[in-house]
Design a protein that fits this description.
The chain has helices at about 15-30, 45-50, 55-65, 90-100, 120-125, 165-180, 195-210, 225-230, 245-255, 300-315, 320-335, 350-360, and strands at about 5-10, 35-40, 70-75, 105-110, 130-135, 145-150, 155-160, 185-190, 215-220, 240, 265-270, 280-285, 335-340, 350. The chain is α/β, with parallel strands linked by helices. It folds into 2 domains: about 1-100 and about 270-363, Isopropylmalate Dehydrogenase; about 110-260, Isopropylmalate Dehydrogenase (3-Layer(aba) Sandwich). The protein is globular and about 60 Å long. Bound molecules: nicotinamide-adenine-dinucleotide.
């Protein structure tokens, strides 16, 4: 069965790392393992140059119709002074909003060959495989009122509003429970119910949803303790589900347990379509467009390729193939191949295309 992929390479190293995914897709299609039909659009600064918008309506339409969107990275100094509404990041924000991507999945996997590169002791991170499921469209980043008021006495007051409705908590928790079924069957739900009303509701709804998943172990953990435990003993976790703010912070902390930005994939999922059961989804590396290394062949394509592997797993149910791609990544690292950002003594430095080729050869 054929599946459609809409590729949005974006700016800077986005185009370089997407080229490696395109090679991989061509390889998988040629081998008969997949039948992907791809189309490519513009997002970010390049879209602004072409259309005066961070993503055109026509490309937005294509993103809405595709089975999955594969996104590179956007931005760069060239567009630092463009109007706020059409700045490169606005393209990504519009995609997230229009595709209603409320669940952000951030895995933190420690490849054995890179265990020494972590800032934690090797034994704490070797074999680490955790997944942070962050609520992406609600909470304090979007709640109203959100303002700074001049009090007229030389003082100002700033207000952000942390707001969640139960349906928002329920749907993100169910994503976490469903994912845990395919992994270690353990979910930690993280909030600050000791000091926040939104945390009290979060915990109440999470526990209620957990009742529908008797085979999943459910644990509550306060967000501050979760941060501490992530650096004390990260392997105790399997899936962590949390709100937008705590998820932002905890996922970055977890990510750095495993090394470079160039290694970190992510997925953002929407609600399943009531008719087809398919979810809208966007897959992207965590890093940005890295203007400092763009055009030099220095970009590490692993985060991008691992994001594509997440698409195989979560949008297309191709779990075995996703496992193989991830094993190929681990394999080239075992072989001692490194891009510049993860270079270690005794290893061989390769450029972006050589890394992509080596992963395909391993497959
Ligand atoms: P960045 O993630 O682009 O780069 C941070 C550092 O990590 C740089 O030194 C870069 O060279 C390195 N790096 C990042 N990805 C790498 C890779 N794949 N291989 C090797 N090294 C890599 O963040 P920044 O420098 O703060 O931002 C640069 C631009 O990217 C800005 O315009 C910013 O707005 C944008 N940005 C975009 C996204 C996105 O598209 N999702 C995310 C973050 C930043």
């Amino acid at each position: 069965m054929s599946h459609s992929l809409f590729l949005l390479p974006g700016d800077g190293i986005g185009t370089e790392i997407m080229a490696e995914v395109e090679k991989l897709i061509a390889h998988l299609n040629a081998s008969g393992a997949t039948d992907f039909v791809t189309d490519t659009g513009l997002v970010g600064g390049c879209a602004y140059d072409a259309h005066g918008a961070a993503i055109s309506d026509a490309d937005m339409e294509k993103a809405l119709k595709a089975d999955a969107v594969i996104f590179g990275a956007v931005g760069g100094p060239k567009w630092d002074n463009v109007p706020y509404d059409v700045r490169p990041e606005a393209g990504l924000l519009r995609l997230r909003k229009d595709l209603q991507l409320f669940a952000n999945l951030r895995p933190a996997i420690c490849y054995p060959a890179l265990a020494d590169a972590s800032s934690l002791k090797k034994e704490l991170v070797e074999g680490l495989d955790i997944l942070i499921v962050r609520e992406l469209t609600g909470g304090v980043y979007f709640g109203e009122p959100k303002e700074i008021t001049d009090l007229g006495n030389g003082q100002k007051r700033a207000v952000d509003t942390q707001v969640y409705e139960s349906y928002e908590i329920d749907r993100i928790c169910r994503v976490a429970f469903d994912l845990a079924k395919t992994r270690g069957k353990l979910v930690h739900s993280s909030d600050k119910k000791n000091v926040m009303k939104s945390g009290v509701l979060w915990d109440e709804v999470a526990r209620q949803a957990a009742k529908d998943y008797p085979d999943i172990r459910f644990e509550h953990i306060l967000a501050d303790n979760c941060a501490m435990q992530l650096v004390r003993n990260p392997k105790q976790f399997d899936v962590i589900v949390t709100d937008n703010l705590f998820g932002d912070i905890l996922s970055d902390a977890a990510a750095m347990l495993t090394g470079s930005l160039g290694m970190l994939p992510s997925a953002s999922l929407g609600a399943p379509d009531p008719q087809t059961g398919k979810r809208k989804a966007l897959y992207e590396p965590v890093h940005g467009s890295a203007p400092d290394i763009s055009g030099k062949g220095l970009a590490n394509p692993i985060a991008m390729i691992a994001s594509f592997a997440m698409a195989l797993r979560y949008s297309f149910g191709m779990v075995e193939l996703a496992d193989k791609v991830e094993a190929a990544i681990a394999g080239v690292l075992d072989d001692g191949l490194r891009s510049a950002d993860i270079m270690q003594d005794g290893c061989r430095q390769v450029n972006t295309a050589e890394m992509g080729d080596a992963i395909i050869a391993r497959l």
